[in-house]
Amino acid sequence: MSILAPAVVARDVRKVYRRFVQKNQFRTLKSALLTGSLLSDLTPDQTFTALDGVSFEVPRGSTFGVIGENGSGKSTLLKLLAGITKPTSGSLTVDGRISALIELGAGFHPEISGRENVAINAIMLGLTQREVDERFDEIVDFAELREFIDAPVKTYSSGMYMRLGFAVAIHVDPEVLLIDEVLAVGDEGFTRKCLDKISEFRRRGKTVLIVSHSLHLVEKMCDDVLWLRHGKTIEQGDPKRVVDAYLIHVAGGEEALLAREHGQTDAPETAAPETPPGGTETSPKGYHEGRWGSREIEIREVRFEDATGRARHLYVPGERMSVVMRVHAATSVDDFVFGVGFFTADGVSVYGTNTDVEDYQATAFQGDAEVRFTIDDLRLVEGSYLLDVAAHRKDGTPYDYHRGLYSFRVKSRIKDVGVYRPTHAWSFTSAVKMETPQPRPEIDLSEEL
Amino acid sequence: MLAQIRTLFRYRPLIQSLVSRDLKARYRGSVLGFLWSFINPLLLLGVYGIVFTYMLPVARTPDIEPYTLFLFCGILPWTWFNASVLESSGVLMAGSNLIKKVLFPAEVLPVVNVFANLIHFLFGLPIVLLFLAYEGRLGPTLLLLPVPILVQLILTLGVAFFVSALTVHFRDIQNILGHMLHLLFFATPILYPYADQKGLLKQVLRWNPMTHVVFSYQQILFHGTFDHWRGLFLAGLVALAVFCLGALFFDRLRDTLAEEV
User: Fold this and answer.
1) First-to-last CA distance in chain B?
2) Which residues are CB-neighbours of A220 under 8 A, at least 6 positions away?
3) φ, ψ for residue A407 (rounded to 5)?
4) Model pTM?
5) Which CATH architecture is the domain A8-237 placed in?
6) What's the CATH number for A291-410?
7) To 10 degrees, the CA torsion angle through A175, A179, A183, A189?
8) Would you list the domain boundaries of chain A?
9) Which residues of A touch B101 (CB under 8 A)?
């Protein structure tokens, strides 16, 4: 990070596409003339707003991620950044040579050799003939295609094609690298290599923008994440927080959102009385996750730990799970309560408690500390769950309230329903003939992690 | 405009390598390969020679004998123009992955197409020259040959800009273009001599810039004399105007290209 101007600045970027295609246009024109609905047919539903007032800055040398569902405007954003299309309004500046891994091997000609395609592709991406000559061997070695380089590209497998495309694009050595969902290339080994190369980029202080559905990757690599939905910024900031919020949203799905809007589930009661989320980030309709509070006590990090102390988000019923909060108080505080609340993805309260209702008497806290809330035996059915954590005064005035910012999943082989799975047993008197099933072990999570 | 020309100049190496790629790829996989560049014009000449000598004989005056050679001098440059314009209609769609996925100056594509066809034309030239030499018609006027080539290049580029950008929005052009070019072919003195035409037809021909370009080729190559300076000059001015308008038009539509191709 440096004090230099940011590498990318987007200010209130809007992109509106005209929706109709030629054929439709003719069809509508004809029918419009026939039915006399020409005017109504030319009204604004024929435009499509792909991006709607998106603003952000990417500091030089940082890695910026963009996530969101399909059709949320991610790729449009990348195309705008690459300069392929222009914003309808707003401004977008990118400082430095840019290379866009939007489609690998775009512009390869199938009939000519890999060698010639590399040369042309590299020039297309902005290298000079000299630079191409210098880097040619490096490119071919990176793509691991030395023995095939003189064969026509049409004989390549799709993996080879992608590898060559990636190799060329990455060796253009840009100041700003745009990556659109291209890391699903080739085999494990090559993906590893690509990621290493991108990491090397970051170490060398280059700016990277990643658009991906691989949330794990985004969370791991990015310094800052932007979540787009229908062309609007939903959240931006700390990768973990944004990715969690996104996960929760995806898990909850549209139905949950609708249900909330219709007030079927009231704002869940937690151990602390609710404070309106003033000054929090914009949220989707009816979705109240956020963070607020005076921050005299700050919850700096929240993680889920399993029995061995390893951070994870995926559990099976019956496991031990701890919620670990790293908290900080700059000055001494003597009136404080820590609380947690668990919710299903659609907002139904599962359980909530705090130190006050359990009669813990707070006396003093200053500096850094860890607060640990351990559940010995996680008796939940399969599903995604959200977590609220809070530090507040006894009277409920919040110091730091995190609502729905964290999520974890429970997986189970048994597809029972509800929320809570009590320890239970079936038994039958002799008239019922029923074979007792083999006890099935829960899913081995070590495969999943 | 100027910025556009600068862009094209800056992308010279790319245009160069794309032209050579085009040439390499065109005949890749065919048995005769590059020889097709020579055989194609010969075959074309054969077809027109047979049709207009035996089937629909053209009224011939002695100054267009040998007729086949006369025909050749007009058909070869026409083929360049015809193929360039025709192919430019599809060139942006064919390169859509470049326009949509790579930061790429779209005007490079029609330019590459025109230049690739220019190269084919230049490959065909030695064959004409060989025939001319055989007929003893090679003269010093040959040195003037670059002049009509330049005029034609500028004109073709202008038309190619126009056609390529417009076709993206109106795909119908691809269908109609071939017929329009066919009409223009007959409205250009290729099958018949320009000098002999009179009345309305002459007036029509005069307004076609390709008339003057083709007539200049015929004078320079076939007749060995050149006095059509005025016509060629005016055609050159028209070509420049077409080029500027075409480039301007292309520039206007540029931002819509990535969305529409």
Assistant:
1) 23
2) none
3) -145, 155
4) 0.65
5) 3-Layer(aba) Sandwich (3.40)
6) 2.70.50.60
7) 0
8) 8-237, 291-410
9) 84, 100, 102-103, 106-107
**Residue A83 is nearest to which of B13, B100, B103, comparing CB atoms?**
B103
Contact check, Cβ <8 Å, B103/A82: yes
- Token duo for residue A331: 């000055």
Separation in Å, CA of B75 to nearest CA in chain A = 30
B189: three-class secondary structure by DSSP:
coil
Note the pLDDT tens digit of each residue in A304-347: 998 888 888 888 888 899 999 999 998 999 999 999 999 887 77
Q: What was the ipTM of the complex prediction?
A: 0.73
Residues in chain B: 261
Helix, strand, coil % over all residues of chain A, rounded to 5? 30, 30, 40
**Substitution target from B26, B103, B169 for chain A, most A beta carbons within 10 A:** B103
Same CATH topology for A8-237 and A291-410: the answer is: no
Grouping H, G, I as helix, E, B as strand and the rest as coil, residue A223 is coil
Residue A157, min C-alpha distance to chain B (Å): 19
**Buried-state track A346-366, b at ≥16 Cβ within 10 A, e below 16:** bbebbebebbbeeeeeeeebe
User: What's the pLDDT tens digit per position in B89-123?
Assistant: 999 988 887 887 777 788 899 999 999 999 989 98
